[in-house]
Design brief:
171 residues; mainly alpha; three-stranded parallel beta sheet; two-stranded parallel sheet; 52% helix; 9% strand
């Protein structure tokens, strides 16, 4: 439920969603990976989806497809002439089921991308680790961990990061 509500909230805000892993099946079953789902998107994303004949949510494959997402981020950054941490991208594992999702998320953090988690990872016992992952990492790679179970609040946080990075790129 969290994944579907969060995804609908993001596309409504004109944020295209690239999905990989276990969440893809649920999003596909809800019809969010069809071109008709563009009707649920904000006006700008709806226009892009309709002109290209694509869905507002695109499936990039299994959980281990994080490398494919990195390839997209690398290609975008190269095309624009910026570093990956400047891209208006946020990773999310709202209902991660196993530690593999966290490992994939760490890969994204190393690339400098923020990572939203819909449930607390197994780090809360260490104040130092929590501080590094939620704040300190911003100065190291550009990434940070956001933990939020409420899909609307999570979308607010993710959108704020995306808008801030868009502003930094004048887009």
């Amino acid at each position: 439920m969290l994944t579907v509500v969060l995804t609908k909230e993001l596309i409504k805000r004109d944020i295209i969603v690239l999905s990989a892993g276990c969440s893809s099946g649920g999003l596909e079953n809800c019809g969010l990976m069809t071109p008709e789902a563009a009707e649920l998107a904000g006006d700008s994303l709806k226009e892009v989806c309709k002109s290209l004949g694509i869905a507002p949510v695109l499936n990039f494959g299994p959980c281990l497809a994080i490398g494919r997402l990195e390839m997209v981020a690398t290609a975008l950054a190269k095309e624009i002439g910026i570093d990956i941490p400047q891209l208006p991208l946020v990773l999310s594992a709202p209902q991660w089921l196993e530690e593999q999702a966290l490992a994939d998320g760490c890969f994204g953090l190393a690339l400098g991308l923020p990572l939203h988690l819909g449930q607390q990872p197994f780090i809360a016992g260490s104040e130092l680790v929590v501080n590094v992952l939620t704040e300190g990492l911003k100065d190291i790679t550009g990434g940070q961990v956001l933990v939020e179970i409420d899909p609307v609040k999570a979308a607010d946080q993710m959108e704020a990061i995306i808008l801030e990075r868009r502003k930094g790129l004048n887009i």
